[in-house]
C-alpha cells in the first residue's frame, strides 16, 4: 500500500516538531515537506530530530515509513 503525506507522514510530526522547524519550513505543509524530504529523512535517521531531551526518537518503523514515502514519489 502506498504511503501518503496526509494519512501517514503528517501524523508523524508533533506540534513540538512543527514549532521547532517553523523558522525554516512548516512540517504540516505537504509542499514544504516534499521539498525538504531528503533533509528531513537524514535528520530523523541520524537521531537529530527530535532534539535530544524533548521527545522520543523516531522508531525504525517511522523512519522506514518516511523513506517509503520518499521512494514512492512523495504522494500527497
Number of domains: 1
β content, as a range?
under 5%
**Radius of gyration, Cα only, in angstroms?**
11 Å
Q: How much helicity do the residues have?
A: 40-55%
Mean pLDDT metric: 94
Which consecutive residue ranges, at least 5 long each, have pLDDT under 50? none
List SSEs in N-to-C order.
HHHHH
**Major sheet summary line:** none
Number of strands: 0
In DSSP terms, counting alpha (H) and pi (I) runs of 4 or more, how many helices? 5
How far apart are the first and last residues' alpha carbons, in Å?
14 Å
Structural class call reads mainly alpha
Shape: globular
Short description:
It contains 5 helices and no strands. With 76 residues, the chain is mainly alpha-helical.
Descriptive account of the structure:
With 76 residues, the chain is mainly alpha-helical. Helices cover 53% and strands 0% of the residues. The chain has helices spanning 5-9, 15-21, 30-35, 37-46, 60-71. The two termini are 14 Å apart.
Amino acid at each position: 500500500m502506498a504511503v501518503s503525506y496526509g494519512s501517514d507522514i503528517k501524523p508523524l510530526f508533533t506540534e513540538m516538531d512543527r514549532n521547532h522547524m517553523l523558522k525554516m519550513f512548516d512540517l504540516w505543509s505537504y509542499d514544504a515537506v516534499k521539498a525538504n524530504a531528503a533533509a528531513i529523512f537524514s535528520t530523523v535517521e541520524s537521531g537529530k530530530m527530535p532534539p535530544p531531551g524533548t521527545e522520543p526518537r523516531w522508531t525504525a518503523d517511522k523512519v522506514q515509513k518516511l523513506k517509503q514515502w520518499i521512494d514512492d514519489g512523495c504522494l500527497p
